[in-house]
Write the C-alpha cells for this entry.
Amino acid sequence: MKNLRDWIAWAEGKKVAIGHFNISDSEGFKAVVEASKNLGVPVIIGVSEGEREFIGLEEAVALVKTARANNLPIFINADHTYSVEKAKMAIDAGVDSIVIDAASKPFEENVKMTKEVVKYAKTKGPTLVEGELGFIGQSSKVLDAIPKGVSKTDPKDAEEFVHQTGVDLFAPSVGNIHGMVKTGEPKLDIEKIRKIREAVRVPLVLHGASGNTDEEILAAIDAGIRIIHINTELRLAYKEGVKEGLKSGEVAPYKFLAEGVEEMKKVVLNKLKLFNAK
C-alpha cells in the first residue's frame, strides 16, 4: 500500500492537493473517513497538541491504522508541535508526519529545532517532517481581525531554511492565517506561493485555509500547494450540527452527535471535491 510520501508524489503528478482535516474526537474521525471513502481519495487526519491531549495520541494513531488496514488511504499528522520533546513523542507513537512549529522563534532557533526533529525522524522510520517559516497565528476560531505579528515568508529565506533543515514538507506564510477573519481577509498571495515552490523544491502545505474562496484555493494548488489544512470550518459545522441535534430534546449522544458528524462530513466532501478538481 502507498505511504504518505507516495500519495504526495501522486498529488504532485496530478496537480491536486490532499485534504488535511483536524479532529479532536471519534466523531470527527468518522466524518473524515466516510468522506474519503465516498470519494476514493487520500486524506490526512490532523491532531494538534491540544487535540491529541483530548483524544489521546496513541488512540488517534490506532484509529488511523485501523482504517488503513481496510485499505483506506488515511494518514495521521501531528499538527503544530511546539517542542522537540513532544515531536519525538509523536514520532515514537507512529504518526505519518509531524509539523514542528517554531515559526514564532528567530530564524536560527527555528532551524535548530526543526533540524533536530528531522534527524530524529530519520532514525525511527518513514515519518515525514514539515517545517514552518513565517507566522500565521495560532487560533482556529472566528477572529475579529488579523492577528498581530503575522508575516509573509520570503522565498530566499524559505530556500535557506529548507536547505539547512532537510524537511520533507514546507509550510509558508502567504496571506493565510489560522482561524477565519470576519472581514474575509487576508487574501492568498499566489505569486509568492509560486516563487517559494520554485525556490524550495519540496511540496508545500497551506495552513489556515478555512474561509478562503474556491478560486483562491484552486489558484494555490496550481501554484504548488499539495496539502491543505482545514479546521475552523469543521469546528463550526460540528457545533451547528450538534445544536440542531439537541433541539428535539434528544439525550442519546450517538443520536444528537450524528447531526454534527453529518455537517462535518458535508464540509469534508466539498473540500475534497475542490482539492481534487483536476
